[in-house]
Amino acid sequence: MAGSIGNMTEVSQKKNFAYVPPSPPANLIESSTYTLDFVTRKFIHIGIDPTENFQVAVHLITSSRHVKITPDFLKRIFSMMGNILSFILDTPRTNKRITFLETDLFLISSMVYKGENNLVVECKNKSECRVLLNRADLIELNKLEWCISKTIIQKSV
Q: Whole-angstrom Cα distance, residue 101 to residue 145?
C-alpha cells in the first residue's frame, strides 16, 4: 500500500494542471445587462454584435464562463420554461441527465450540481462555453422574460 501512495505522489508531482479560461465574449454595441444573481455573478448581456454583421446577440455570463446564444434560441428557452422549471424544481436525481433541446449549435440539458438540479446551456461549436443555471436563476430569468423580450425587439429595430 505504501508503494501505491508513493506512486500517486510521484504522478501528482509530474502533472501540472493549468486553468485556461475561455476567450472573453465579444464587446457589444448598445448593450443592456440584466442580473440573474449578483452574488454568484450571473448576468444576461444583450446588444448588437459587430463581429456578427451587427446582429443582436445574447450572452449568458458567469464569473468563469459564458455562452453566446441567438435571440431566437432564447425565445425557445422561454417557450419551454414551464417544462424546464417543473423538472428543475423536482427532487434531484444523481445519475439522470435530461436533454431538453439540441440544435446544431446549442444544447440545453440538466445536471445535478451541489445537490440541486441545474440547467446547462452550452455551445457545441466552442469548447468551455457553457453556463449552469440553478432554480433561483431560472425563476429570475422567467421574471425578466418581458423586459428581455422588449430589449431584443428594441435592439432589432
A: 19
pTM of the model: 0.75
> Cβ distance 110 to 95 under 8 Å?
no
Q: Please count the other Cβ atoms lying within 10 Å of the Cβ belonging to residue 56.
A: 22
DSSP letter at 128 equals T
In angstroms, rounded to a whole number, what is the distance separating the alpha carbons of residues 7 and 124?
37
Q: Which of 26, 61, 70, 29 is nearest to 48 (CA)?
A: 29
Residue environment code for 125-145, b if the CB has 16+ CB neighbours within 10 A, otherwise e: eeeebbbbbbbebbbbbeeee
Q: Which band of pLDDT confidence, cut at 50, 70 and 90, is reported for residue 89?
A: confident
Three-state SS for 46?
Answer: strand
Q: How confident is the model at residue 5 (pLDDT cuts 50, 70, 90)?
A: low
* % helix, strand, coil for the chain, step of 5: 35, 35, 30
